[in-house]
Amino acid sequence: MMVPHYKPSFGEAEKLAVRQVLDSGFIAQGPKVRELENLLSKALGKQFGIAVSSGTTALILALRALKVTSGSEVIIPSYTCTALWHAVKAVNATSVFADIENRTWNLDPEDIYRKITKKTSAIIFPHMFGQPGRIRELLDYGIPVIEDIAQAFGAKIKGKPAGFYGTISICSFYATKILGGGEGGMLFTDSAEIDSYLRNIRDYDEKESLIPRINAKMTDIHAAIALAQYHRFSEFTEKRKRILTQYSSVRGNHRILIPTDSTEFQPNLFRCIIDHPEKSADELIQLGKKSDITVRKPVFYPIHYYLNDNKLPHTESAWKKQVSIPIFPNMTGKEIERVMNFLKQL
Asked: 59, 63, 86, 253: least CB-packed within 10 angstroms?
């Protein structure tokens, strides 16, 4: 049987959480959503947390809250999930792609600066693969920053949580994320005005005024699962650390690029990204198949490739060379051993 690239780590805590919500008879947005909002906003050092139906919805609402609209430009990476491009498109704005740097493999602040124009209304900065990036350098640019921690909840930058630095920060609770709730997302901010706006437009029912709103609520079922995952976060992190230690002990020609720890950046170990000096990503994926291991490219396709946009040399090089190998809390000893044997053969 193939070792999966990722598998959610659900147990009795998550099952009990769901049963309690079902037994309560209140499954829509309710007390569990409010509990999750309060808990996670405190964890990130933000004044407000606003739960919504998905991470993509969170991005769209964040752009709307910042008044990004037709004629606006939003700087995003290409080496990321297409959700960012879809969110920008949803508010009729234009995506401008900046390249990544080869230290954290996140957006390059210098290239972002070169892409800023009079039309730039926001920057979306995702900390990819659980590896925090150089977001603090953007704070002097005078442009609102949406900090995307969909893959980086629990990571730290200079001792502060990833998600602390954004004008608005967002996360996702999709099944394969670090806190897998099945579906759901959340926005975080210190602005009472933004908080009020987001709570007003995430639900259209029983309002005193008629303005464009959407049904973007998170359910108590998804919130309960995410809460159970949050309370197990330390357990999950310790398991990931043990697996990474075993991978790091393997001598081979590969390099572990992510996670990379330093005094500035503390990753959450969500993904383990490797490359090889003589093999392409496609070759590594095929070798993984021969070893019954699901090895994947970290990003399915750089977004600018779809659009025949400007060249982004670091993005293109990373996509051609990097792969992600399995690392998740409920890996079995045999699965870990199989991945280690794969690394030894490289």
From this structure: 253
DSSP string, 233-263: HHHHHHHHHHHHHHHHT--SS-EEEES---S
Q: Which residues have C-beta within 8 Å of that of residue 210, sequence separation ≥ 6?
A: none
**What is the C-alpha separation between 178 and 259, in angstroms, rounded?**
14
Burial (Cβ within 10 Å: 0-12, 13-18, ≥19) of residue 212 = exposed
> Residue type for 163, please?
G
For 12-231, CATH number? 3.40.640.10
Residue 3's Cα: distance from chain center in Å? 23
Furthest C-alpha separation in the chain: 66
Helix axes 281-290, 313-321, angle to 10 degrees: 20
In the block, residue with structure tokens 């949803």: 90
| Global confidence as pTM | 0.97
Contact 255, 274 (CB under 8 A): yes
Please write the tens of the pLDDT for every residue from 112-167. Answer: 999 999 999 999 999 999 999 999 999 999 999 999 999 999 999 999 999 999 99
CATH class of 233-344: alpha beta
How many residues comprise the chain?
346
